[in-house]
Structure formats: C-alpha cells, structure tokens
Amino acid sequence: MKVLIVGGGGREHALAWKLNQSEMVKKIYAAPGNAGISQLGECVNIKADDLSGLADFAERNSVDLTLVGPELPLTLGIVDQFEARRLKIFGPSKKASEIEGSKAYAKEFMQKYHIPTASFKIFDDKNQALDFLKENTFPLVIKADGLAAGKGVIPVDNFYQAEETVKKIMVEKIFKEAGSKIVVEDFLEGEEVTIMAFTDGKTVIPMVPSQDHKRIYNGDAGPNTGGMGAYAPTLFVHDRLTKRVYEEILEPTILGLERENRTFKGILYAGLMLTELGPKVMEFNCRFGDPETQVVLPLLKGDLVEIILSIIDGELELENIDWKNDFAVCVIMASSGYPGKYEKGKDIWGLNKIKDDALVFHAGTKYENGRFKTDGGRVLGVTGVESSMDKAISKAYTSVDKIRFSGMQYRRDIGKKGMKLKGKYL
C-alpha cells in the first residue's frame, strides 16, 4: 500500500513513524514533509493547502490512502475533492470540519445539542462587541471565529485589554478574515485536558487522555504557542470521568453532526476544561493534535492503518483498540524568539547520540549539505516512553540534553504538573 501524509510537522512525523510499522504500508509519501519524515519515506514539494496538486499527485502515483494532518486542507474540503475523484482519504468532510473551522458555528452547535461549554456571545460588529464588554465582568476570553494557527484565543483581564484585542482582531485584521467575527465567552477555571477519539460517524472510541503545555515558559508563563510539550495518559482523568466525557460530549457531538447532515469520519479532538461543575468543551478540532499525537501514538498497540480503513469503511465497531500500560512525555525544542519571529538554518547537533533512548519527531527541520538544520519555530519533539511518568520524564530530558542548536529553548517542567494532579479529578 502506498500512503500519502499531508503536512510537515511533528504530528505528521509521528504518523509516518506509526505507519512505517504496518506490514500493509510499502511506501510513504509526505507533502511537504520534513527532514525527519524523509528518513522514512519520500517528501514531495506540494503545499498542504494545494488540494488539486495533492489529488493530482495521488492519482499519478497510484496512492492507496491519504492521511491529512493539519486543519487547513480539511476545512478547505480536501476530503470532498479526493472522494469526488475516487481517491481514498482519511478525515472529515468540509462541512464536518466546520466544527473547528468556525468557533461561532461550534458554539452554536454545542448550545443546540446541550454539550457543556462556556457561556458566549457572537459578534460581527466591533461596536456591539465593545458595548457588551463594557457591561461585563472579567476575566473573559475573546476568540477569532476562523482558523488562526492556534493564536486566535485571547484571555483578557479587563476592558482595556478587551478593547485592544477587539481592535486587533476586527479592525487591524491580525488574523485576516478569520477575525471578521468573534466569540466572547466566559473564562473557564480548572485543568485542561485533551481527549481525541476515533470515529466513523456512528461509533466513537476515545484515545488515552493527554495534556498539552501551551505556554512558552516553565510554570505556564508567557504567551501561548502551538504547544511546548505533552504527556499521556493523564493521571487525573479516571475511567468515570472518561465515561462522562463520552456520554456528555463525544457521543452527542457525533450524533448531532449526523443530524446536521455533517457526518464526521476521522479524529474528533476535544479540548476540555475540567471545572468544578464537570468537563466543558473549550474547543473542537477535526484532526490529530500537535504535540498530543507525539505521546498518544507511541502508546497505541496494533496497526493504525487497520483502524483508519475501518473508519473509512464505517466498520469501527469491529475494531478492538488497545493501549500500552506505559507513559509518554514529549518535550518540544523550539527556536529562539518563538512564538514570535525566529531565525532558521541553525545546525542541529547530537541527533546521532539518541539511538533508542527516545523517539525524536522532527517538526521544523530540513536536511542540507549533509546536516539537519532548523526550519521552523518548533523544531523537534523528543518523546520518552517508560513504565512510569517520572521515568518517562527522565528519559525525555536525558535525550533533550544530548541535542543542541543555536538559540534553542524548551520547558523543563513538561509532565510534572500531571504528577501533582494525580487523583484530583474523579
């Protein structure tokens, strides 16, 4: 089987790593891929949002299965285009992907189907939004409606911050058309957790819960990023809570989308806040998370291709999905300046010292003149897998300490919060 992976980050390298273990897979392509993925397959210079170019490539090279990593091609309708050309592809349709593509739609959907989330208001007029904010108490959260590369969710502590945020989103258009509409919602307090699920539009099977670390600095300080590390499973999400998330959130969402004629096949990502009143949805994504994938897939037993094919064929209920009794911790190594401006082209040293000590997933890298070099904000994800959380943390950081590149930055506390929270949420 020939497989095409769309995307070029750490998530896509983790997918390539897992697919490479399948006896069904004989050839892996990635578009555009990265230097790490190029060690497992062939990278092709096609952008992830070039839908026609990707479909043409899949036809021309007799690709048997395409997996989509990032959200943009999904929300643009890559699945619809591939299926119209009788090309097998894994992911939700354009209509189903709107659960991530429009925060306003997602909030109205959750309200309609009684899925727990924060109270909210939607605005397409700046002045109306400011009038509402003047009368409210803080903190609040302001969200750009459309895709904003993970940067469109902004907490505000007072009206001055809120006014500046509305101006930047709706007037200065820092997120372009994604900010034509905004969602203002209550600030949720509690602990964040991610639960991703396999679904064929009928059956829903949750994966092991994970926790991302979004802030750039230790102790969850500094600005938000695309994610500075993750770990799985979360010690504070027990079976009873997972059952509640399934019954109150995951299953009603899939059934609701079916009723809306938006059958969802693929990966449903639920970003949750565990509040005193129970789990509430902060956001839905229509694909694997990044960096959550880099800790969840190493814990998955069996063949990912078999699961994917069962989802495409609508037969997920026949799958028996098992997980290792291990822990995985991923530490992201980022470029200096990230999540702001950063330089590229720095030599990466020490990768040859890792061997089997840990898994190294490339995100922003390239291979040039016989050397791996930095080529993005998030450069590498180093994942340690062990029988306990503390051992997994130790394994990840032991390997991180062997790698270096000019200006590298990373957090030193990935996974430690999970140890402190053990047993808190029952």
Helices and strands, with pairings:
Elements: E1 2-7, H1 10-19, E2 27-32, E3 42-43, H2 51-60, E4 65-68, H3 71-76, H4 78-84, E5 89-90, H5 94-101, H6 103-112, E6 120-123, H7 126-134, E7 140-144, E8 153-156, H8 159-171, E9 182-186, E10 191-199, E11 204-206, E12 211-212, E13 215-217, E14 221-224, E15 229-232, H9 239-259, E16 266-275, E17 278-285, H10 293-296, H11 304-312, E18 327-334, E19 359-362, E20 365-368, E21 371-374, E22 378-386, H12 389-400, H13 416-420
Parallel strand pairs: 1-2, 1-4, 2-3, 4-5
Antiparallel strand pairs: 6-9, 7-8, 7-9, 10-11, 10-16, 12-15, 13-14, 15-18, 16-17, 18-22, 19-22, 20-21
Helix pairs in contact: 5-6, 7-8
Describe the structure.
The structure is a single chain. This protein has 13 helices and 22 strands. 29% of the residues lie in helices and 26% in strands. Helix 5 packs across helix 6. The strands form 6 sheets. A 5-stranded parallel beta sheet has the order 3-2-1-4-5. A 5-stranded antiparallel beta sheet has the order 12-15-18-22-19. By secondary structure, it is of the alpha+beta class. The longest helix has 21 residues, at 239-259. The protein has 4 domains: 2-95, Rossmann fold, CATH 3.40.50.20; 119-186, 2-Layer Sandwich (Dna Ligase, domain 1); 191-318, 2-Layer Sandwich (D-amino Acid Aminotransferase, Chain A, domain 1); 327-420, Phosphoribosylglycinamide synthetase, C-terminal domain (Glycinamide Ribonucleotide Synthetase, Chain A, domain 4), CATH 3.90.600.10.
